[in-house]
Amino acid sequence: MEKTHLLQAPHLHAIARNIFVAAGTARHIAEDVAEILVNAHLAGHDSHGLLRVPAYLRGIDAGHLQPTAEPKVIAESPNTLRVDGQGGFGHYISRWSIHKAIEKAKSAVSCSVSLSSTGHIGRLGEYAEAAARAGCISLISVGNGGRGAGPTVPYGGAEGAFGTNPIAIGVPTGDDSPFIVDYATSMIAEGKIQVARSKGIDLPEGCILDKNGMPSVTPADFYDGGALLAFGKHKGYALAMFTCLLGGLAGTFDVESGRMNGTF
Fold it and tell me: Could you give all domains of the chain from N- to C-terminal order, each with its CATH number?
């Protein structure tokens, strides 16, 4: 079991920022990404915090994550925006996009934004909270689906076909505590499995299958070819599909592979 350290949020932010800058990330991007990761810890979701840093660094080293990439608007109207993340940090691209969406919504009543080509965007509640603080209602989703597209098994299926495909909703309430919904359409987010593995504890029953399709509570079984289950059986499956359809608005539907993905 790994040793646990208790650090103040500003210290944790500085550590993460400096690591990203050392890996070639632009300073202003590193500031945003580090802040959003630390905010996940402060919100009680270590699964979307600094445990993600090693994976991001591997992505930079492999060339899959572009640490200096800026969002590029490829199409827009008064109340729509289509953004190419150019392979950059999803946290930074998503924060930039939600601010643009808020600006447009305030002038055109509503705004729909589609994102493509971004890295992992972190905890969706971060962006729903930003919208609510600005007086806006938001619906945010990340969808990835198709044969072999992710570890989540469709209801009644035998092979992973979806990512964790989260959904977040934010509604202002008139005070400092907005109404926030934020959850994966799988039984648990993959990051929760990482946390359980690091703590040496079992998962709740009914969350994962091992590589043989048998129920398991052991985190290692998931990483040894296992799979996630959708929450609510057919209901979670339907919502996972819904996030893919919204994500496909970014124009990412691949006819040959039957896959679509994107952030909406």
Answer: 9-62 (1.10.1530.10), 72-186+230-263 (3.30.1370.60), 190-227 (3.30.60.50)
